[in-house]
Amino acid sequence: MSPRMTSPTENFIEQMGLMTQAEGGPRIAGQILGYLIVEGEPRTLAQMTEALKISKASASTNARLLELKGSVRRVSPMGQRQDAYEALDFPNLAVIRALGERFRAHADTMTEIGAGFPESHAGARERVTRFAEFYRKTADFIDDWTAKLAEDPDLAATDRDDPR
Amino acid sequence: MSPRMTSPTENFIEQMGLMTQAEGGPRIAGQILGYLIVEGEPRTLAQMTEALKISKASASTNARLLELKGSVRRVSPMGQRQDAYEALDFPNLAVIRALGERFRAHADTMTEIGAGFPESHAGARERVTRFAEFYRKTADFIDDWTAKLAEDPDLAATDRDDPR
DNA sequence: CAAACTGTTCAATCCTTATTGAACACGCCG
DNA sequence: CGGCGTGTTCAATAAGGATTGAACAGTTTG
Asked: Fewest CB within a 10 Å sphere: which of A68, A87, A109, B17?
């Protein structure tokens, strides 16, 4: 029975894939991000396909997706023909930012719909509006958080003297 | 060309479904929640199947899912044979709470994996750990927010004199 | 007790999205 | 120019979940 020993690296990459999937994204995107985090230096698409056993198409598509979401950046040193990608310092910051934006969008549409309820449905309008405001406030809150992180990245790092 | 006039109610319910789907949940769960928010009072499974044109199975399953997630509560007044559900005051509070819990779970697994990296991969370990800590801090932040909301629900309501 | 009613479970179906293989486009090199 | 290396696009396939219909279990009613 094949020992199926999984190294920390393999384990991390696998979990990154599952986690990303749990959050509604493509599994492979998470795996690529995990791979880049472990490696710590730029890696080419070819290296990804090799390391993760995925198709060229997936590597290309998902790497660009990560770049779009802001978790990863494309680098291309002179004299290097292949595209390479590397993980940003705080790849998950982008995820949180996107979350806030999504919530704000939800708040906007809900607010608009709420305003459409006629006086005869004042109760429903009230409840819908309240619902929308909740999302807006949460979006504001998340924005504060990401802004704080952006200006003081150490907040997100492990700190020895927890200043709680 | 059928006028396809959509009332605010229909529109709201539809958008709730799409929004929920966008967040990775079942569309019907969102629709049910939307329906209950608009109605403002308990509604039975039969009423849901009728109003939303969904199967009995979906109504049952998704209503219980919402209950489990804490967006909705089951009520059964005496002399009432059917189960009924009603939306809680701040249904989306549960969503945010769940988000925080999920992030904390992510943080835990990542931290554990990070600890498994040997000294020879100190760099990778550092990066993985940092990644985990980011999620943990974010989870803490979200917990603070939900706690604040729980003790002072008006925060989530529309306020006329924005105390920003 | 039998019939009617209600909620749950579960296997089958449907739908959406992720993933892939193959064709394509572009640039470089000989 | 003609071939090679590389990244992207796109139609087709695969995979994963949501949704449903039908069977089931439990309760109430007459």
From this structure: A68
Name the residue facing A158 among B23, B96, B133 (closest C-beta). B133
Any chain B CB within 8 A of the CB of A95? no
What is the rounded radius of gyration, in angstroms, for the C-alpha atoms of chain B?
A: 21
Q: In what order do the strands lie in the sheet with A72-75?
A: A43-44, A84-87, A72-75
* pLDDT tens figures, B89-141: 999 999 999 999 999 999 999 999 999 999 999 999 999 999 999 999 999 99
Give the pair of three-digit tokens for residue A52: 């993760």
B86 pairs with which residues across the strands?
A: B73
Token pair, residue A18, equals: 């599952």
Residues facing residue A74 across a β-bridge = A85
Contacts of A15 in chain B (CB under 8 A): 109-110, 113
Give me the count of residues in chain A.
Answer: 164
User: Per the structure block, which two tokens stand in for A57?
Assistant: 């198409």
CATH of domain A8-87: 1.10.10.10
